[in-house]
Specification:
With 274 residues, the chain is an alpha+beta fold. Helices cover 46% and strands 8% of the residues. It folds into three domains: 136 residues; 58 residues, no CATH class; 50 residues, no CATH class. Strands 4-3-2-1-5 form a five-stranded antiparallel β-sheet, covered by helices on one side. Strands 6-8-7 form a three-stranded antiparallel β-sheet. Helix 1 packs antiparallel against helix 3. The longest helix has 24 residues. The protein is elongated.
């Protein structure tokens, strides 16, 4: 590919989120739920009528829809000149999202080919990844929209530990479409991968164990360390940590080791060496 893995993942994630972003914007822009943004008093006894919907919402909705439709057209009809398209006025959020989902699925299916074409990769990157320096840009990229009207990811905790830090702190972000990707993010060390990386290795690792629904806190107390993490903390071998546990110097639970006990043993060893 002609773009880095980080940009590729970001691009894929934003395209996958775009239909949900569009539905979110349309729900906010619903005139039946709109509030007065800019009621202004004038010299007469009647106030000036407020704008029922913020212009940014309409512009952002239209720009996201246009981006998806344009690229869907470009992939399915490469020999046809681009047809101008605008989001229909008053369209319901779910209808707009359904139309956008079709376009996003087509774009996701063709993303690898685009990523290997310099001209197309640059053009798509400008429409998806670029961030404006102003709060109300002339054209809203998908990244601009996601930054201003963010979605809450439907996350869950994985049972398997992070391969980089050995902490049980990996969040699983499921795909939003049938061709979307599943992402894995570690809260502790910020390791990130998806189900297509390393020939599907991480999909196998994190789907082999039952996931825990995401709640307000961590799925476990982070002071319960893996054997490798406990050994690194104490700067000893894993066998030494096991012996501490066998001697009941360190509490264990489900193959994990209690960090305060490990730290107490470390202090005890330091005192003995003094």
């Amino acid at each position: 590919m002609l773009i880095c893995q980080s940009c590729y993942r970001s691009m894929r994630r934003l395209i996958d989120d775009a239909p949900d972003l569009l539905a979110h914007l349309r729900s906010i822009a619903d005139p039946t739920k709109a509030r007065a943004y800019d009621a202004v008093s004038v010299s007469s006894s009647r106030p000036e009528l407020p704008a029922p919907v913020a212009a940014d919402l309409l512009d952002a909705s239209n720009d996201v829809a246009v981006t998806l439709r344009m690229w869907e057209d470009r992939i399915l009809h490469p020999d046809v000149d681009y047809r101008r398209y605008h989001l229909a006025a008053g369209i319901e959020g779910d209808v707009a999202a359904d139309q956008a989902r079709w376009c996003a699925d087509v774009l996701l299916a063709g993303l690898d080919a685009i990523a290997n074409d310099k001209r197309q990769a640059i053009a798509l990157g400008r429409a998806v990844l670029d961030r404006s320096m102003t709060s109300s840009p002339d054209f809203w990229t998908i990244a601009d929209v996601a930054a201003k009207w963010s979605l809450e990811d439907r996350m869950r905790w994985a049972e398997a530990a992070c391969p980089q830090c050995d902490m049980k702190a990996v969040r699983v972000l499921p795909p939003r479409s049938r061709v979307g990707i599943t992402r894995y993010l570690c809260r502790e060390c910020e390791w990130e991968a998806n189900d297509q990386d390393d020939d599907g290795l991480w999909a196998a690792v994190f789907s082999s164990a039952e996931a825990v629904p995401l709640g307000d806190g961590m799925p476990h107390d982070p002071r319960w360390l893996t054997l490798a993490a406990a050994a690194r903390l104490a700067r000893v071998t894993t066998g030494t940590v096991r012996r501490w546990a066998e001697r009941e110097k360190v509490k264990t639970d489900a193959g994990r080791y209690w960090q305060p006990d490990v730290e107490a043993v470390i202090e005890e060893r330091k005192a003995g060496a003094a």
